[in-house]
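Hi R.,

As promised, here are both runs. First protein below:
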Amino acid sequence: MPDTLTEALDRASSNRDRSIEALASLVRVPSLTGEEGDAQTHMAGLLSDLGADTESLEPDVAALFESFPMVAQYPTHWQHDLILPYADLPTHQALEKSGLEDVLNYRDRPNVVGTFRGTGGGRSLILNGHIDTVTIEPTHEWTRDPFGAEIDNGLMYGRGTSDMKGGLMAAMLAMTYLKEAGASLRGDVILQSVVNEEHAGNGTLDLVRRGYRADAAIVLEPTNNAICVSHPGGLYWQVTVPGVVRSPGARWAGENMEGVSAIEKLPAVIEALLHVEKIYNATKTDDPMEEGRVPFALTIGKVAGGHYETATASEAVLRGGAYFSPVAGEVHEVMGKFRDSIATANSGDDFLNTHPAQLEFLHHDDSTRQSPQIPLAVQMGEVLTERGISGEAKAGPFACDMRHLVNQGNIPTIIFGPGSIAQAHKPDENITVQEYLDCIEHLIAFIWSWCNQPADG
């Protein structure tokens, strides 16, 4: 093992307290989606102090929709989340007409990019992570300070510990210890701290639009330090079901029903949606990456409707989501299946046939599928195996910004980082401290190995 690599690994091993405090300091800076500015200032300072060429770049919404009309999303904010539905695709024109640009924008919400220039001739690498976190609501369910970074029994608690400040800071410290050891890397390393991954993905997409490219990328989402080479697509949707308001005394006019509650029409809509899930999951695949899991998961998460107990509901709204594996097809095909299902529900009911339920989408993610034999995954697997842990590549269980790097940027990418996806978006989110510390060393070893390989090797 080269002396400088040994020195970098030794520095990581002997600076545990420093590494832990670095993550705690980042967790203590709230960075809810829409309010990432202070945390990005923190990240820019760290990168600049480390000697990286550092840029702060606010995503350009109009340019995103022009460049990527099929996948660009509306900006989101934790206080104004998923508030602009669309029947077909979101558009910049619809955003302009909505009057919501004052809250759905990227003012003071920049991406931060730090480029560590290599000496030349080596493979380049993007290290990508999102700085934004979901809300801490419901706050009463937390038993720890959401921004306290409290450590107890080997766990650090706080919003963003697993999703995904742990991965982002592991990458930062991997580069820190390599630099302090005097390591000379032939290839460039580009560390990207991006905004608005949650419910949008526009941060990473804008960096792809701006032309940031590398020979490979690692998205540092929580995988418990396992290698993932694909991920499902996702949809957030809502169905608005109409009704006709009448009091009990006016629901019937003789034998004619005049009062129709939107709520009583929900079963037909729900059944139609569940049928989509049933059909997808009845489809068999021989893809070994999909072994042991179904290709489609539907959630019906919220229902709201009616205003008064003694009147039929004029409207009911269902909201939910869906994850689907790459074998289910691309996201716009899945959106079409949803449209077909609601059309079927409408045509099969006399009332809905003339008062149709309306399907709209709130967000859509394309899926990503790569071979587990891509050189990036193989080399990371070899590094991990040498370090005594599994180097097997598998399918990822959640959608993330990998899709933009692979599908729009044509960059071979893996998902790899500390923490558990089971901790994401929940009260008392936490990360196993040892897993975070291990990830720093894994990344040091991989960055050294990858970036010192010939670019055409």
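And here is the second one, sequence first, then its structure tokens:
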Amino acid sequence: MTESTIHPRRGDIECWLTDMDGVLVHENRAIPGAAELLRHWRDEELPYLVLTNNSIFTARDLSARLTASGIEVPEERIWTSALATAAFLKQQKPRGSAFVIGEAGILTALHEAGYVMTESNPDFVVVGETRNYSFEAITKAIRLIIGGARFISTNPDATGPSAEGPLPATGAINALITEATGKLPYIVGKPNPMMFRSALNRIGAHSENTAMIGDRMDTDIVAGMEAGLHTVLVMTGISDRAEIERFPFRPDEVLPSVADLLASS
């Protein structure tokens, strides 16, 4: 095994990426130890980013929501699938155009990346998360993709949580459009390692000294592993011990919660 293929060890970690829901907060309440861990990173001047596949909200919105939960995270320390998608499209086609299904998070990110929103011959159709999916908008997206627009999506999550139970999410709409067009989307968010690489670029970090904390084997851990990061699975969200056994790969560490990272730092 060459040096470049060895994942960093905890003692080598100088930068941190962490998922948000299930790691720092659960149902809009701070997970014990999360605020203290973030404070420790700030005090030690360790570069970090909070990652989320949520493309509904802007980083400013999410910063305010975390503050209300008792966790202080400046907006510049939040990296969403919407921001990653906008960065990817800016690199692919600067000053391009897009037809977007989504809300403020993806629309704001694309505007700030220099994109024009249009329904007339866009370069891309971009599907993000929204709570107001429109049959008319989905129909328009299908016709534009058939007409040659490239199909991009912020994330693959088929469902999202709510107090009443699961909600159809971006991945479900992706599947509907794929069935109608025969085209698969290019998905920028987790588990695409591209989201992690763009996050590393954002804070000037390198995989050799960066760790990823997550609560899902199928997104956080696999993408972190493929990006060459030290991976830490916490048990405060989706995964449990039985879930780990379903996968042919393993995280570098499995901990009860982020509080255990603080205790061992």
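A quick note on the second one: The longest strand covers residues 15-19. Let me know what you think.

Best,
J.
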